[in-house]
Amino acid sequence: MRTIMTSPAYNPPKPRRRRGKRSTVVACPSIQTSTTFMANRDDGFSGDDNNRKRRVAEARAAGINPTGMVWSSQLSCFYSSKDDIRRIHEERGIACEGLVNVKAPEREVPDDGPYQVADDLVQDKVASVVHENYEGDIGEKELTELTETTRTRMTGVVD
């Protein structure tokens, strides 16, 4: 067991000072070219030969030569450089941060008024309520009222 001296008379040894020039450590920015980005990458299939053959055949049928390219399962395409990844993200309108930075395009939010629940969701809910509470026997007027009440409840409209 290690003993730690805690008396007020204890003075820890002072660090030694270096003589001469001081060395300064500066953080170096990460500079990565497409060549270093692509270096030592596998083909993206992780040894799955059947998937590799199928994807390569699809690419060649589409007029793309996948030789020397890497498959991205996230993007579902082949790429050969950081520029390819940037271009694909820009074309698809996908944001990306990291070694490749792409901002998502701003999209206008349609102002169609208050939220409306899809009719099929309302009908499914009404059908389950009719089955549970009315045992499938409900009048036309009650069904209309139940549908409107359910729609109002599902949209979250508060009076």
Global outline? extended
Largest sheet: 2 strands, antiparallel
- Percent helix: 25-40%
Structural class: mainly alpha
SSE sequence, one letter per element: HHEEHHH
- Using only CA atoms, what is the Rg? 32 Å
Question: What does the average pLDDT come to?
Answer: 81
Poorly predicted segments: none
What is the count of β-strands? 2
DSSP helix count?
A: 5
How far is it from the N-terminal to the C-terminal residue, by CA? 72 Å
Taken as a percent bin, the fraction of beta residues is under 5%
Strand order of the largest sheet: 1-2
Can you give a write-up of this model?
The chain has 159 residues and is mainly alpha-helical. Among the domains are: 34-81, no CATH class; 119-155. The chain has helices at 34-38, 49-61, 82-92, 119-133, 140-155; strands at residues 70-72, 77-79. Strands 1-2 form a two-stranded antiparallel ribbon. Helix 4 (119-133) crosses helix 5. The N and C termini lie far apart (72 Å).
Task: List its traits.
159 residues; 4% strand; 5 helices; two-stranded antiparallel sheet; 2 strands; mainly alpha; extended
